[in-house]
Amino acid sequence: MTAQNGKDLLIKLDMDNAGSFETIAGLRATRISFNAETVDVTSLESQGGWRELLGGAGVKSAAISGSGVFRDAATDERARQIFFDGEVPRFQVIVPDFGIIEGPFMIASIDYAGSYNGEASYELSMASAGALDFTAL
């Protein structure tokens, strides 16, 4: 596998709750992380005193984050609307040469910043809010 261009990792937002996905405008950096809680079933009978985990029993979650420049585009407006209305729409994350992760996410935080002689920027953090689908590329 060859090295991948970071700008090809895209976060897309369902603009109308009908499957019309658009890349969030102005993003410069994106990240997705997956987590699974562990359920410890270690007992006195555990071989050699090693910890034992129960497979498939923990809660799975995903987190998406991104940062970029504020462009006052339709996706910026939609993200603000989602946050203030408490919506949980579908997002897509496209990971080059890997696949597409799609499912409901809640916008957990939006941070806006700007300096006197620089551009306005923002950061988004989203948390999974249901089952995610994966489609290999």
Plain-language structure description:
- With 137 residues, the protein is mainly beta.
- It has one domain: Factor Xa Inhibitor, CATH 4.10.410.
- The chain is 9% helix and 46% strand.
- The protein has one helix and eight strands; from the N terminus they run ββββαββββ.
- Strands 1, 2, 3, 4, 5, 6, 7 and 8 form an eight-stranded antiparallel β-sheet that branches.
- Strand 5 and strand 6 form a beta hairpin.
- The longest helix has 12 residues.
- The two termini are 13 Å apart.
- The model has no long low-confidence stretch (mean pLDDT 91).
Concise structural overview:
The chain has 137 residues and is mainly beta.
Question: How large is the radius of gyration?
Answer: 19 Å
Number of domains: 1
Which word captures the global form?
Answer: elongated
Number of helical runs?
A: 1
Protein name: Tail protein
Pfam families: Phage_tail_2
InterPro entries: GTA_major-tail, Phgtail_TP901_1
